[in-house]
Amino acid sequence: MCDPKEENHPLSPGPHTFTSPTKNLTFEYIILHPPTHQPNRPPPPPPPPPSSKDLIVIQCPAWGIGSRYLQTGLAPLLELDPEKGQKTPYTLLFFHPRGTDNSSRPRSSTEMSSMPHLASDLDDLREHLHLLRFPVLMGHSNGGAIVLGYAEMHPTRVSKLILLNHQLIGLRDRAVSSSSSSSSSSSSSAAATSAALKDDDDDDDEDDLQDKDLTQHPSPSTKKKTPNPKPTTDKSFTASVQSRWSLYFYNPAVYVPSLLAAIGTRIMPIWCYRSVYGCDENQELQHPQQMITGLERVRAKTLVISGRDDLICGLKIAERSKEGIPDSKMIVYDRCGHFPWIEREKRFFKDIREFLALRS
């Protein structure tokens, strides 16, 4: 643990909250530090005071899944990697967007767009941490859209940007794999997803808002066969999401249990889901293409990671981002869906560490 005098430091381990005076919103973030002692190993030297130099800020998605799955999945980054010359451990900060856990909801659900609303909140975090710029900003899925939006809005305030199977608001690619190398379970899910998405194209706006799962959580069958196709409570929404996780993996039989264990018993708030996708997907943005046209504004050194078998955020998104961001590198994993740290764990952390070791 940190020295007692540091326990109120904004980078001390555990949950923190702060309030944005200009927005009248409270935000929560969670700090993870490396464990101070591991079984069967000698006690380590006393940890240094919290430092922003080795800070990785991780934006969790805004639709209600929270950060626990990321805390669990990205925990290996807390371990030192002497081979890369790493002498001090990374500090992981998980930022909760509006409406998630102890981050407050805005006055209106129309103030939940990934960009500019949620992206702008990262600048409140930066000011709270007294940073000139974020050393590393990382986001997965919808969290990736949020950090990308921030890097476009504030090009000089991000040194490194990591986009993991990210969304790109204004470009939808719910890719369906047709590769014969896919597992039978993935292939059958893909075919069913294709049918479900075709049905979804015929829905009216109200249906689209009520069942936004088909954008970020495609149904494994047609709506009539899906339990609770239009959930109205947090509990029924959570059950609906949990029934669809198999579509997020190349090999769901092997890897879905790992994701479920990482998520835990969380109940996901349907308000968050309806609000963020109500803004992002229903053309309530004043400039729906702003994130695509703003790619060239990013000045951060950027790593784009995608899974070739990701049915949720397809390769076109990664390719368009790589094309538009000047200093960017794209890595695509074969036999991998939406969660690369689960399906391609060794390769994923190797690639992340190599990128982190680069000079900004």
What do these coordinates show?
The protein is α/β, with parallel strands linked by helices. It folds into 2 domains: 4-37 and 48-172 and 287-357, Rossmann fold (3-Layer(aba) Sandwich); 184-281, no CATH class. The protein has helices spanning 68-73, 114-128, 142-153, 184-200, 205-210, 213-216, 234-242, 252-263, 270-281, 290-293, 315-324, 340-343, 345-357, and strands at 14-20, 25-32, 55-59, 91-96, 134-140, 158-164, 301-307, 328-333. The protein has an 8-stranded mixed β-sheet with strand order 1-2-4-3-5-6-7-8, with helices on both faces. Helix 2 crosses helix 3 (142-153). The longest helix is centred in the middle third of the chain and has 17 residues, at 184-200. This is AB hydrolase-1 domain-containing protein.
Could you provide a short overview of the structure?
With about 350 residues, this protein is an alpha/beta fold. About 35% of the residues lie in helices and about 15% in strands. It folds into two domains: about 5-35 and about 50-170 and about 285-355, Alpha/Beta hydrolase fold, catalytic domain (Rossmann fold); about 185-280, no CATH class.
